[in-house]
Amino acid sequence: MKTSLVTALVLGLHAQSGFAQDRLECVLPQGGRIVMEGDCKALYGNDPKICDTQYATRYLGPDGAAPVELGITSMRRTGDSGTPAQMCANFYVRDGAVHAGGAEYGQYRTVAKGQLASLEAKPRYDKEVEKQANRESARRALSRPGYTRMAVQGTTWVVEDALTRWHWGHYADADFYRQPLSHVSQTLSTDQGKSWSAPVITSASRLFAIGTSAQDQPDAAKPGASTIAAKRQDRRALLAQGKQLVLRCRLPDQSEFVLSGMLQDDEDANRQSGGEMQPFVPLASVSYVAAPGRAAISVDPDLALLMGLPTAAAGPAQDQVCNGAGLANGLPFIGITMLDQDGKRFTRFDYPDKIWFPGDPPRQIREMLMRQELTYGINVAVSRRGKLIGLEYPLVSQTCASGARGDQAPVCPVGGVLRSESHDNGVSWSDLAFSKASWIFTQGKALEQQPGRATLQRR
Questions:
Q1: pLDDT at position 70, please?
Q2: Is there a single domain that holds both residue 259 and residue 357?
Q3: Would you say residue 84 has pLDDT above 50?
Q4: Do residues 315 and 418 share a domain?
Q5: DSSP state, 431?
């Protein structure tokens, strides 16, 4: 899942109003650092965008030399928790020089011996290459994770776009960016960028390490862990300040997930919404309490699959906030985040490359759902039996699901599940398969009536 609004809000929040500085530090393999700084917009308002895409960038060498100002770097910041790694992977070291993209397409910069050099390399677009990249069946398609490199090798300029294999139509989550590269689209120039060879798809890359993801390239920069951790902690702390909205999702064994969010203060509410309560607020924290008096276990809010914490102004949405949490095989889960076997922490299981969310299912699954007149919703859950993990989407009748009246969601009984299994703790997964049997959902009962589901506790 490409990310929720809540995640974006959490990553972007640095101050409760006005503009704040978003700072990202990337550490290069030789010990140098790239520091990027950009403005972040206010948290509240109708515009969900968080940070500007233009970052003032400088390079700090490992030897304490004077900083080198690189100018502006244009880089889109998604709301994904993996975004710092995605951004830093655009910087790398090759042949003793630091490489960085520019503010516009085709701009490249290098720093060698403390000196900055810039050049433009804009190979021509070739539609036939696009066809070649997708010439095979959908399940064997090549896709671009969005990383381009340029280097000068002797008298030859080399530009490469990274390509990775993935299961088209199955996959839509951050882990896509961690898939190993299988090929590159490569084009060359021997006249300093005046003309370019026709791009070719090849596994003989000059600039990328094939078999390793773009984020994990051995010469690429990585986020400065202490900087990122401190920033996330500071933003969590800001979200936890002020008036709190607390919702409790109680499980059948009387344990609870406790969800908290930050309500607007009276001044913000009057300025931005005429004093009316917002329907949704950013999620500040999620914790799991096994029993009264027991220490709470923190759950990363980014893993809770919530699009925002509904206030009373959101109407029925507050009653439905606990639908994504439950108890299966004695283990509590919230979305695809489940309590570890040792009972000490919660782990999220990334959507595997044969699971989609949200998006279109594989063709054979889609055809099966049409024949049986079933459909899936946003609910997804995970559970474990011994070393076997099962991830399931509940299915309901298409006729029932389309019978919504006004803002009232229909109550539809579960008629089966789409299921994938992992025997290696989520590293690899089986193909999605339809099943009447489920570890998590009881057939014939609506999601709101599932015996293992969490229920909202009103006080």
A1: 93
A2: yes
A3: yes
A4: yes
A5: P
Domain identity same for 158 and 235: no
Across 405-429, average pLDDT: 82
Domain housing 189: 123-218
Q: Are 110 and 97 in contact (CB under 8 A)?
A: yes
270: left (phi over 0), alpha (psi -120 to 50) or beta: alpha
Residues 6+ apart with CB under 8 A from 334: 249, 257, 286, 299, 303, 304, 305, 324, 325, 346
Cβ neighbours of 207 (radius 10 Å)? 21
Closest CA relative to residue 261, chosen from 304, 210, 209, 211: 304
DSSP 3-state percent helix, strand, coil across the chain (nearest 5): 20, 35, 45
Residues 233 and 244 grouped into a single domain: no
* pTM check: above 0.90: no
Q: ∠ CA 412-418-419 to the nearest 5 degrees?
A: 135
What residue type is assigned to position 359 of the chain? G
**Residues 326 and 439 placed together within one structural domain of the fold:** yes
Examine the domain organization and report whether 192 and 298 are in the same domain: no
Residues in the chain: 459
Confidence bin at 268 (pLDDT 50/70/90) = low
Query: Is there a single domain that holds both residue 46 and residue 164?
Result: no
Whether 194 and 249 share a structural domain:
no
How deeply is 445 buried, as exposed, middle or buried, from its count of CB atoms within 10 A (0-12, 13-18, 19+)?
A: middle
**Cβ–Cβ < 8 Å for 117, 172:** no
Query: How far is residue 368's CA from residue 264's CA, in Å, rounded to a whole number?
Result: 47
> What is the pLDDT, as a whole number, of residue 17?
35
pLDDT of res. 204:
93
Q: What angle do CA 143, 148, 152 make, to 5 degrees?
A: 140
Of 124-128, 187-191, 344-348, the one with minimum mean pLDDT is 124-128
Q: Which of 186, 218, 250 finishes a domain?
A: 218
d(CA 328, CA 385): 10
Last residue of a domain, one of 207, 239, 271: 239
> What's the structural domain count of the chain?
3
Nearest to 257 by CA among 333, 206, 199: 333
CA distance 389 to 73: 42
Question: Cα separation of 257 and 59, whole Å?
Answer: 44
Q: Write down the residue that tokens 């027991």 correspond to.
A: 294
